[in-house]
């Protein structure tokens, strides 16, 4: 139980830090909160609601991991290094994939809701 509490506290600290310092995390956390409300209006059933909110939650999770990678890379060196550039580009690509997934499910579900 103590281990669970400690893990929960660490996660809360990470979320608080990212929310304070990372603009992209703030934007995506707010989008997740608003998206959870909007999804209730456009999702035809509970599984569809989970897909819409899950896609936004995945985007936020990947953004948090990307932030962690960037911080670690900057801790290793602030010098321009091709290998660090590749590491950061890979993190950025992961976020892009999640953005594409969100565009697909949200546009698809909104079109379905509007067109019937
Ligand atoms: N130390 C470095 N060496 C080589 N290339 C780097 C280095 N730091 C950043 N880059 C390149 O610049 C890009 C942007 O890096 P940066 O650290 O500014 O992240 P960002 O995408 O602007 O994110 P954020 O605004 O959240 O910090 C990277 O994807 C990478 O291509």
How would you summarize the topology of this molecule?
Blueprint: H1 2-21, H2 23-42, H3 46-76, H4 82-115
Helix pairs in contact: 1-2, 2-3, 3-4
This protein binds adenosine-5'-triphosphate.
What descriptive keywords fit this protein?
116 residues; mainly alpha; Helix Hairpins; globular; binds adenosine-5'-triphosphate; membrane; transmembrane; metal ion binding
Describe this structure in words.
This protein is mostly helical and 116 residues long. The protein has one domain: Helix Hairpins (Orthogonal Bundle). It is 91% helix and 0% strand. α1 (2-21) packs across α2, α2 (23-42) packs antiparallel against α3 and α3 packs antiparallel against α4 (82-115). The longest helix has 34 residues, at 82-115. The termini are far apart. Bound molecules: adenosine-5'-triphosphate. Adenosine-5'-triphosphate (ATP) is lined by residues 24, 70, 80-81, 84-85, 88-89, 92. It is found in: Cell membrane. A divalent metal cation binds at residues 22, 70. The chain crosses the membrane at residues 90-115. Its cofactor is Mg(2+).
């Amino acid at each position: 139980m103590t281990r669970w509490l400690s893990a929960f506290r660490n996660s809360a600290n990470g979320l608080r830090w990212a929310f304070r310092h990372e603009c992209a995390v703030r934007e995506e956390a707010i989008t997740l909160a608003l998206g959870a409300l909007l999804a209730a209006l456009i999702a035809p059933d509970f599984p569809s609601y989970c897909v819409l909110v899950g896609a936004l939650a995945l985007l936020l999770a990947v953004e948090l991991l990307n932030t962690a990678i960037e911080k670690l890379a900057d801790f290793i060196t602030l010098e321009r290094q091709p290998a660090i550039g590749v590491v950061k580009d890979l993190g950025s690509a992961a976020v892009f994939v999640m953005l594409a997934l969100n565009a697909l499910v949200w546009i698809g579900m909104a079109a379905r809701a509007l067109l019937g």
